[in-house]
Give the backbone structure.
Amino acid sequence: MSLFSFGFTTAVADKRLPSYIPKQRESGLGREEHDSVTAAIEDLANPAAKKIKRGKYAKYSDEQRAQIGKYACEHGNTNAQRKFLSGFPNLNESTVDLSRSCIKKR
């Protein structure tokens, strides 16, 4: 007894596609080309569906934050970022601003 007697076929069925994407046999593309184009279109159509990995957070000690914050209070956020960029290559202006605001609260 074969699987064909249970309704199995050798043809690969087209998966459900959105109405704006033509089926593979209608597109004139090969299966691999059609699959890659379909995947690219679906990624563009549903950008929120793809989970974006966040970057790693840089960790600064309390002393480093205090040093950055004090300099930012005196010279401004942008100047503080520029000064400490050589020591902390991933230093963002938002981190400088947070450090400055913590120093101002004291």
